Amino acid sequence: MKSGTSREQIDHVMERIKDLGYEPHPIFGVERTVIGAIGDERGKSLLQSLISVEGVESLIPILKPFKLASREMRKERTVLQVGDVKIGGGGFANIAGPCSVESEEQILTAARAVKKAGANMLPGGAFKPRTSPYSFQGMEQGGLKLLAKAREETGLPIVTEILSSDDVDLVAEYTDVMQVGARNIQNFSLLRSWAR
Q1: Are 154 and 143 in contact (CB under 8 A)?
Q2: Residue 50 phi, psi dihedral angles, 5° rounding
Q3: Domains along the chain?
Q4: Higher per-residue pLDDT: 156 or 184
Q5: Which string of DSSP letters, residue by residue, matches 118-151?
Q6: Would you say the pTM of this structure is higher than 0.90?
Q7: pLDDT in tens, 77-104
Q8: DSSP secondary-structure letter at 53?
Q9: In which element (H, E) is residue 108 found?
C-alpha cells in the first residue's frame, strides 16, 4: 500500500482480496502496510486487478511456498513476546527443563532448579509422541495441570508440544507457548487449528 494510505482504503483492499477467494494477511509497519494474499497460486492472476484500487502502490508476487515467513512479505524480524520474555529482536530466551512431565515432584524440582540457574521459560511434554505405542505417552491433562502449577510457583512461562488439533483448546488453557514438533510440521489440520 502507498505511504499514508487510510485504514478505510486498507480495509477495502482486504475485502477485495476476500472476494477473489484469498485470505488477506495485513502487516502494519511504521511507514506502510503490506497485505499478503494467501491462497491457491493457480488463481493469482486475478489479484492483478488490485493494482487499479486506490491506495495500492504495487503488487509483488511471492513465489516461495513459505509466504508468511518470507522477507518479501515481512521485512521486520519476528519477535515473540511471552510475558516478560522476548524471543528474537535481540531478546534471549533460555528455555530449560525436562523433556516430559512425569510427576509433580519431578516437574516442580526441575522448575525450581532451572529458575535458580537463570532460565526464563520451562518446557515439558504433557503429550509425548513415541515410536512405540507401549512407551510412556505423557500425562496429558494431568501433565498440563502440573506445568501450570510449576508456572504458578516459579513464574516461568510454559512451553509444551501440541500433537493433535483436538487438543489445541485444552493445551492453550494451561500453557503459554504451543510447540509444533518435527513429526507434526506437515500436519496441516493441526497447523490450521493452532494458528487460529
Answers
A1: no
A2: -70, -15
A3: 7-69 (3.30.70), 80-194 (3.20.20.70)
A4: 156
A5: T--BEE-BSS---SSTTS----THHHHHHHHHHH
A6: no
A7: 778 889 889 888 887 889 999 989 999 9
A8: S
A9: helix 104-116
Under 8 Å between Cβ of 61 and 44: yes
Joined grid coordinates for residue 148: 501450570
Kind of pairing, strands 33-38 and 80-82? unpaired
Q: HSE on the CB side for 120, CA within 13 Å? A: 11
HSE of 32, CA atoms in CB hemisphere, 13 A? 12
Cα distances (Å, whole numbers) of residue 110 to 24, 82, 119, 136: 43, 20, 11, 19
Q: Could you report the per-residue pLDDT of 105-148, keeping only the tens digit for each?
A: 999 999 999 999 999 999 999 988 777 777 777 888 999 999 99
Q: Among residues 58, 54, 57, 49, which one has the least CA distance to residue 22?
A: 49
At residue 52, φ and ψ (nearest 5 deg) are -90, 0
User: What are the cell numbers at 193?
Assistant: 487449528
E strands along the chain, which residues? 23-28, 33-38, 80-82, 85-87, 122-123, 158-161, 177-179
Phi, psi dihedrals of residue 10, rounded to the nearest 5° = -65, -45
